[in-house]
Write a structure and sequence with these properties.
It comes from Urocolius indicus. One of its GO terms (molecular function) is cis-regulatory region sequence-specific DNA binding. This is JMJD8 protein. The protein is mainly β. It has a single domain (2-159), classed as Jelly Rolls (Sandwich). The chain has helices spanning 7-14, 36-43, 69-72, and strands spanning 18-23, 31-35, 57-60, 87-94, 99-103, 108-114, 117-118, 131-132, 135-138, 144-148, 152-159. The strands form 2 sheets. It has a 7-stranded antiparallel β-sheet with strand order 2-1-3-4-11-6-9. A 4-stranded antiparallel β-sheet has the order 5-10-7-8, with no helix packed on it. β1 and β2 (31-35) form a beta hairpin. The two termini are 24 Å apart.
Length: 160
């Protein structure tokens, strides 16, 4: 699966397909549809620290697993399970410095295919921010924020 998630392979397979981008801000729900190639070549940039998260569009959350089916048929999720839950997947690609502010939801985990994620820089120092090089479990209603330290390809699995 990782070998299929390189920039060149994703562009060759999905470049002309539309993707829905959203802002990563609790108070902004802006959605924009663009061809995947436009996102990768024009919008997948490092976050400008002088701009608000609501100005930054990134590919996460609103994706169609039917259209991306040829890629996801090769995905083998880690063996993390909770009794009585089923998995819902969300594929994402984001630039360095982008992320999601503090929030909570049901249990799940985030798996990094390429790149690195870390805790948000505004996190209080006593929270001991962690760098997530591969996968990180988050319990139900556990407050967390994410920061893409590099251009990152990732899948979040929500257990519900």
């Amino acid at each position: 699966f990782r070998a299929l998630c390189t920039r060149d392979k994703l562009l060759a397979a999905f470049g002309t397909r539309p993707v829905r981008l959203s802002t990563a801000n609790t108070f902004s729900y802006r959605k924009v549809d663009v061809p995947f190639q436009h996102y990768v070549e024009q919008l997948l940039q490092p976050q400008d620290p002088t701009r608000l998260g609501s100005d930054t569009l990134y590919f996460f959350g609103d994706n169609n697993f039917t259209e991306w089916g040829p890629l996801f048929q090769h995905y083998v999720p880690p063996p993390f399970r909770l009794p009585g839950t089923s998995a819902a997947y969300s594929f994402g690609i984001a630039g360095p410095g982008s992320g999601v502010p503090f929030h909570w939801h049901g249990p799940g985990f985030s798996e990094v295919i390429f790149g690195r994620k870390g805790a948000h820089p505004a996190a209080p120092l006593d929270l001991h921010p962690a760098v997530c090089p591969q996968a990180l479990y988050f319990p139900e209603r556990w407050w967390h924020a994410t920061l893409n330290l590099d251009t990152s390809v990732f899948i979040s699995t929500f257990l519900g």
